[in-house]
Amino acid sequence: MKNLGYALITVVAWGLWAFLPKIATEYISPSSIMVYEVIAGLAVGLVLMYRLGGRLPIKGRGPAWAFVNGIIGYVGILLYLLAISKQDAIVVAPLSATYPITTLILGSVLLREKFRKLNYAGVFLALVAIYLILT
């Protein structure tokens, strides 16, 4: 359980990330928000590129997987923005935050990672949470 600092900061950052678009949708469209987010992401990418000395590692299939992940991530963000523009943040944010269920299933099926009893309990509780949020 040590070295969770980055994870805890991530929780705060993603909490803000999930909340702030609701305010932005009061002023601009989800598509416009997406453009601003991509520009911001590009700025972060340029800073990281500078820190890498201007060179990206090209090793195996890593870059291709990273590229596909970027596409999927941005499609997910756009869908999230569309959802939050039409529904309350207190419904959309927690519902979308159940994405680790997908990760658990894919990790188990494709990577042969082992599910523990607590993992099953977590998935069950997440499904209960989805039900409670939607009722």
Strand content: under 5%
Q: Structural class from helices and strands?
A: mainly alpha
Measure the end-to-end span.
35 Å
Helix content bin: over 70%
Total beta-strand segments = 0
Radius of gyration (Å): 18 Å
Mean of all residue-level pLDDT scores: 91
Model regions low in confidence, pLDDT < 50 over at least 5 residues: none
Biggest sheet details: none
SSE ordering: HHHHHH
What is the global morphology? globular
Number of helices: 6
Task: Describe it.
- The protein has 135 residues and is mostly helical.
- 77% of the residues lie in helices and 0% in strands.
- It contains six helices and no strands.
- The protein has helices at 5-24, 30-51, 62-86, 89-96, 100-110, 117-134.
- Helix 2 (30-51) packs antiparallel against helix 3 (62-86) and helix 4 (89-96) packs antiparallel against helix 6 (117-134).
- It is globular and about 50 Å long.
Brief digest:
This protein is mainly alpha-helical and 135 residues long. The chain has helices at 5-24, 30-51, 62-86, 89-96, 100-110, 117-134.
Features:
single chain, 135 residues, mainly alpha, 6 helices, globular
Lay out the secondary structure.
Layout: H1 5-24, H2 30-51, H3 62-86, H4 89-96, H5 100-110, H6 117-134
Helix pairs in contact: 2-3, 4-6
